[in-house]
Amino acid sequence: xQSFGCRxxxxxxxxxxxxxxxxxxxxxxxxxxxxxxxxNTCTVTAAADQDARASIRxxxxxxxxxKIMVTGCYAQRAPREIAALPGVTWVxxxxxxxxxxxxxxQARFRDxxxxxxxxxxxxxxxxxxxxxxxxxxxxxxxxxxxxxxGDIFAHTELIAAPVFAGDMIGGKTRPNLKVQDGxxxxxSFCIIPSVRGQSRSMALDRVxxxxxxxxxxxxxxxxxxxxxxGRWGRDFQPQQRIEQLVRALLEHTDIEKxxxxxxxxxxxxxxxxxxxxxxxxxxKHVHVPLQSGSDRILRRMHRKYRPWHYAGKIRKIHEAMPxxxxxxxxxxxxxxxxxxxxxxxxxxxxxxPFTYLHVFxxxxxxxxxxxxxxxxxxxxxxxxxxxxxxxxxxxxxRVFRQSFVGRSLEVITLQAGxxxxxxxxxxxxxxxxxxxxxxxxxxxxxxxxxxxxEDLVAIALR
Length: 462
Known about the structure:
Blueprint lengths: L1 E2 L3 H16 L13 E6 L4 H17 L4 E6 H5 L1 H5 L4 E6 L6 H8 L7 H11 L10 H7 L3 E3 L14 E6 L2 E11 L10 H5 L3 E2 L2 H13 L4 E6 L15 H11 L4 E4 L9 H9 L6 E3 L7 H7 L5 H14 L4 E8 L6 H12 L5 E6 L17 H24 L5 E6 L7 E6 L4 E5 L7 E9 L4 E5 L2
Parallel strand pairs: 1-2, 2-3, 3-4, 4-5, 7-9, 9-10, 11-12, 12-13, 16-18
Antiparallel strand pairs: 6-7, 7-8, 14-15, 14-17, 15-16, 17-18
């Protein structure tokens, strides 16, 4: 089982691992030794597609007897493309991802879906509008692989299991818990709604159950994640909000630290800001996607806020939590981004208290409105703009890190120490090199002694 891409995709992959094991399929040590390889793909950029194709070709070359099942976002978006690749036996879109383990167990490495599964899928396809559905019959009979892809907007399943980072005894630390999937926004550059479907949430009692199980297993920090996390609970009747979820975790679990991943600016309400600022059990780490600081570009992107709205949220967050990490996703090279509009975005970013940025170069996705827009930006120009913003982000991060030299921080160790150092992460999302060996998954107070190239150097307080 291999997963590519974002936290949500990794959570889907962890759920598939759990389901495959429940069906009696044992994990192999590597793809070279596997009878069946499941690839859970991403398609957010052209590079993500290329990575998946390269993995398929490599696995087929190195282990030609292995059956390859491809699922995930790329499988949902371009099943014909994947089905035509040598070595691919099955293509299962996100619409049927919840059936992956069942299909694998029933097929038991045959070169086809179980007959009843295939017949039922063909019957289902008759009722789905062709623009939202890839015909099973057309794909399956014209390509080497059998393909199961349906209308993602009819999909109501939410599969997820905790995903871990770092190492601890027998495994890992800092589990990511996906509590929401899908997106109801329609940003002009984004393919994700068409491959993940409408926003849907994990029930509150199940979130609490998963979190308590992680606490019982010895974990100290969990990371809440989703495709559009701030929309958690909006699909319930009556509606609930992300603030209620976070408050319930504090009230009904003993988890020491809750870290909230990316939340759109519209969903950073005064109540959520006050909740994060007021609890020592919530990491002081705020990630607010921006994409561009130019109003004209934001409008072309179909984003739901204006730069002044965004700036107001960031300043309010910084005022409530002056030592918090504040990060953003930023895109460069969007169609129509002139030198003047890029400079408008760069200046906007420069004057806000960001501590890090995730900078992306625009990647045209087939089927999105932006793919057909005029004034596409040359790749070399977009890459240069990417470099400029990454340098700006690096300087902002350096200044932020420097401000903590001589001060104390709360950290969690990510893996057992080696060569006299232990890797850790601070409450406010700073990488820390901790002097001496320490056990993984330990919550510690540390004194910061100096700044490193990309991290802080610290000693544990006794």
